[in-house]
Amino acid sequence: MVAGFRDASQRCPGCATVLDSIELRAALVERCPACGGVWIDWFDGNLGAVARQLDDHAGRGGGGQGTLACPRCQRSLLPELVPGRGAHVFWRCPECAGSFVPHASLEELAVAALRQEAAEQHLSLRQRLAAALRELLGWT
After folding, report:
1. Which of 9, 73, 113, 117 would you call most buried, defined as having the most Cβ atoms within 10 angstroms of its Cβ?
2. What 3-state class would DSSP assign to 100?
3. How many whole angstroms from its chain centre is CA 48?
């Protein structure tokens, strides 16, 4: 199933441009050369950790009009707020759990991941386990 997703060319949910694949340390993500948005499959890891690995050279111009539909299963994406102080959002598929992160939200997502890592370094093992369970179960 994964190979089928990765072999077919996918369109950007934000602007409908064909996505380019980018290989990172532990993930293969798709980035839009036009708007700079990134598609991250659920199995590619934590969104913030992946965002921290991306450089900032992608385009920010517009492509066409996107549908905000999942490039994998075509379901409508649902908005989620990026943890942090701003009003940045990313879009998650309710079917396959993949996420589309617009270029404007990438930096905030990376900063939120850094803040979380710093906070976790000061927590005990028990506190970190409880926090991970709360996040996993959506109790944050």
Report:
1. 113
2. strand
3. 7
Of 132 and 86, the structure prediction assigns the larger pLDDT to 132
In this predicted model, what pLDDT tens digit does every residue of 36-70 receive, in sequence order? 999 999 999 888 888 888 876 555 655 568 889 99
Phi, psi of 38 (to 5 degrees): -130, 135
Query: For all residues of the chain together, what is the average pLDDT?
Result: 82
> Of 35, 27, 43, whose CA–CA distance to 105 is shortest?
35
Q: Rounded to whole angstroms, how far apart are CA atoms 18 and 32? A: 7
Residues 117 and 37: their CA atoms lie apart, in Å, by 24
Structural element, H or E, at residue 110: helix 103-121
With contact defined as beta carbons under 8 Å apart, do 86 and 112 qualify?
no
Prediction pTM value: 0.73
Beta bridge partners of 38: 31, 101
- DSSP string covering 23-91: E-SS-EEEE-TTT--EEE-GGG--HHHHHHH--S-S--S--S----B-TTT-PBPEEEEPSSSS--EEE
Sign of the C-alpha dihedral computed for residues 30, 31, 32 and 35 taken in this order: positive
